[in-house]
Amino acid sequence: MAEHIKTDICVIGGGSGGLSVAAGAAQMGAQTVLVEGHKMGGDCLNYGCVPSKALLAAAERAHIGASNKPFGVAATRPKVDFAAVMAHVRETIEAIEPVDSVERFSGLGVRVIEETGKFIDRKTLKAGKMTITAKRFVIATGSVAAVPNIRGLKSVPYLTNETIFTLTRQPKHLLIIGGGPIGAEMAQAFCRLGSAVTVLEADKVLGREDQELSAHVKSQLIADGVTLVEGTRIAAVSHKGTKTTVKLKNGEEISGDALLVAAGRAPNLAALNLAKAGVAVSDEGQPHIKVDKRLRSSNKKIFAIGDVNGGPQFTHAAGYQAGLVIRNILFFLPAKVNFAALPRVTYTNPELASVGLSESAAREKFAAIKVLRWPFEENDRARAERDMRGMVKVITTRNGRILGASIVGKGAGDLLAPWTMALAQGLPISAMAGVIAPYPTRGEASKRAAGDYYTPTLFGPRTRKIVGLLSLLRR
Asked: DSSP labels for 284-312?
């Protein structure tokens, strides 16, 4: 039986951003409807952040025995049970699922409709047999794997992030199209679990990151056994029997028994019928919903957050935008998006984490900058752990304003947090240099990098003269 629902807020999409809006709005007293036609928890829980980190954790366990010998521990490589590894991935998802479940959100006061939603006019959404009229809509439908236009690809049985975690048989040779964070993470995970892996990248692997730091990650991938093919173009893909073959434009052919497409993401717009809602879509790059600084679409009663609006494709970016939307809708506060202090992490080992401007971006924007570095080779904790890969790299203006920070090394994502706060709060480099860091920790490297700003002055000739003069006056 058809039903018409009137509500304050209707959220379309039950991923991280949509769930944050729905939970926050309902608990603050707004009538809230959530429409989700697939899986609660969205991409992050089911196909992205959670399963990939669970797989990487298993791969680390498989790899760690090889580095035991310097510690006086027998170097042994454990036997990998791939089916059990994938069961671990599923169990991790299942452990988190209750937090994102229909039952939990219903308990918070959200009405959850498990149907795909599409607009039928500027203020009405149809979901199954129901129609919903809301004072405000929030579109949070996320993104899907982008499929590049390669001859033969659509007729080949390829994997994406939505299917790779359902594998029950370990690939003998995994081919990966795309050398971004997803491609790099999956390359390392499968290689350390025992698969041969080849990454095919049109430009540079992790090309959007600081190349000085990404070089450490690429070096480790190669040491693990991953084959990196950079600056290549794919002419065609074919499949015969159990073998998939990628033919490069230079004539070379590379074959494997599994193919992962990790060549970017495309906003998930197909089912929404946005034209009926008066919502404009950008045709620049991947089609996405155009929004203003307050995350409103061309229909000012419809907001769009997360991957669907063409912004940074991170779970934490969607969560941040969810908070802004709640302020804009419920409290009429003109909260505007600002990604200047948005952190990003590639969860390979070593991890690569960044916030703010890279060195190259800073040089394009500022006439003069200072580049501060502190290698983990100079960090006592890293030496004790015999893992001295990487460094802390910080970019400042000449007068000490922090522009960006990047870290490559063990636990880089966690080590980045103080730099993210410093950038968000506009703290000068002196604030970081003055931190009392516990010894011995990797966090000391950040303090040392910050202190490097003062080294030329503090230990220069002028300081020596001042100290000499003061010593003459001291009795």
From this structure: SSS-EE---TT-B-SSTTEEE-GGGGTS-
> Beta strand 143-145 with 32-35: parallel, antiparallel or unpaired?
unpaired
Distance in Å from the first CA to the final CA of the chain: 96
The two structure tokens encoding residue 266: 């495309």
Please tell me the distance from the alpha carbon of residue 23 to that of residue 99, in angstroms, as a whole number: 11
> Of the candidates 393, 400, 448, which has an alpha carbon nearest to the alpha carbon of residue 426?
400
Long-range contacts of 167-172 (CB under 8 A, 24+ apart): 167/82, 167/86, 167/258, 168/82, 168/83, 168/86, 169/82, 170/80, 170/82, 170/194, 170/195, 171/195, 171/256, 171/257, 171/258, 172/196, 172/256, 172/257
Checking DSSP bridges between strand 32-35 and strand 110-113, what pairing results, if any?
parallel
For residues 211 and 408, the answer to whether their CB atoms sit within 8 Å is no
pLDDT given for residue 106 in this prediction: 96
pLDDT above 70: residue 318: yes
**Which residue matches tokens 């199209």?**
177
Which residue, among 434, 433, 367, has the nearest Cα to 398 in the 3D structure?
Answer: 367
pLDDT single digits (tens) 414-457: 999 999 999 999 999 999 999 999 999 999 999 999 999 987 76
Structure tokens at 34: 């959530």
CA distance 468 to 283: 67
Which residues, listed in sequence order, are joined to residue 401 by a DSSP beta bridge? 428
Q: How many Cα neighbours within 13 Å face the side chain of 456? A: 5
d(CA 143, CA 309): 10
Cα dihedral sign for 209, 210, 215, 216?
A: negative
Among candidate residues 442, 400, 443, 393, the one with its CA nearest the CA of residue 418: 443
Above 70 in pLDDT, residue 459? no
Residues 6+ apart with CB under 8 A from 102: 40, 112, 114
The pLDDT value given to residue 460: 63
340-399 residue pLDDT tens: 999 999 999 999 999 999 999 999 999 999 999 999 999 999 999 999 999 999 999 999
Decide if pLDDT at 467 tops 70: no
Predicted confidence (pLDDT) per residue in 130-165, tens digit = 999 999 999 999 999 999 999 999 999 999 999 999
Domains of the chain: 3-40+101-145+266-330 (3.50.50.60), 153-263 (3.50.50.60), 344-458 (3.30.390.30)
Cα Rg for the chain, rounded, in angstroms?
A: 25
Give the pLDDT of residue 77: 78
276 pLDDT more than 90: yes
Render the burial of 318-339: b for 16+ CB within 10 Å, e for the rest.
bbbbbebbbbbbbeeeebebee
